[in-house]
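Sequence design from tokenized structure. All designs in this work follow the same two-part layout: the structure record, then the generated sequence. An example of the structure record is given first.
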């Protein structure tokens, strides 16, 4: 199909629209900063033609000032207006938290976990959660820990083991985690085992809760100590 095209710059520049913001995680007022309108019209039939247009827009949230991309288009043979947003977003999508004090490798895996969740790759998401726990143990040089072992006759005894279960207990032993946080991580360990070894797909709400707990653990280990040291420095300066 041959088509005639016409490009118009900034036809919609300055217009304000309500758009779901990827950072605010709700509909907010956005301003179109730049736009290019691509109008086309076919000329392959002598009696009739079809046409359409797409407006390509760089938009800015007027709350958090996040910049993203939006397209708005129409086609003469279809009803309504089509709208696309980049990055893709929805109310149910998770937003990557700014945890800059977390080691780079762990941050990368954390971002991949969020991406896997948002793209409904639940098995990979669960495996990523397990990898984060393994990474924390490695970064803190935790090689083993004491766990409760059932001897099969109803007797419980403590034994040092080197698998992930033992390492999580080791995190609590070294004071890196509280006992309650270590218990939370044990739940993640089982989630990862089921997903990887039994090919069980976790539920979306189960993963969402697990991710929230992991974020809390990462913040407690890496972010809060930095903020506490910063607060201490500020207090010392005020006392001088």
């Amino acid at each position: 199909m041959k088509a005639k095209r016409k490009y118009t710059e900034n036809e919609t520049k300055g217009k304000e629209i309500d758009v779901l913001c990827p950072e605010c995680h709700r509909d907010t007022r956005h301003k179109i900063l730049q736009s290019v309108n691509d109008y086309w019209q076919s000329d392959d039939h002598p009696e009739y033609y079809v046409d359409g247009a797409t407006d390509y827009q760089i938009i800015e949230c007027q709350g958090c000032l996040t910049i993203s991309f939006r397209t708005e288009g129409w086609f003469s043979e279809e009803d309504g207006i089509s709208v696309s947003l980049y990055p893709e977003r929805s109310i149910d999508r998770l937003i990557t938290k700014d945890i800059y004090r977390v080691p780079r490798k762990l941050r990368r895996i954390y971002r991949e976990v969020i991406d896997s969740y948002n793209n409904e790759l639940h098995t990979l998401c669960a495996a990523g959660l397990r990898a984060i726990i393994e990474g924390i143990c490695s970064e803190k040089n935790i090689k083993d820990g004491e766990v409760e072992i059932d001897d099969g006759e109803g007797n419980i005894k403590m034994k040092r083991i080197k698998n992930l279960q033992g390492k999580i207990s080791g995190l609590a032993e070294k004071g890196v985690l509280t006992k309650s946080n270590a218990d939370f991580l044990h739940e993640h360990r089982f989630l990862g085992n089921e997903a990887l070894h039994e090919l069980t797909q976790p539920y979306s709400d189960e993963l969402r809760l697990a991710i929230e707990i992991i974020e809390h653990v990462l913040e407690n280990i890496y972010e809060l100590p930095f903020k506490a040291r910063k607060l201490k420095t500020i207090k010392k300066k005020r006392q001088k």
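The CA atoms of residues 225 and 231 lie 10 Å apart. We note this feature because it recurs in several other targets discussed in the main text.
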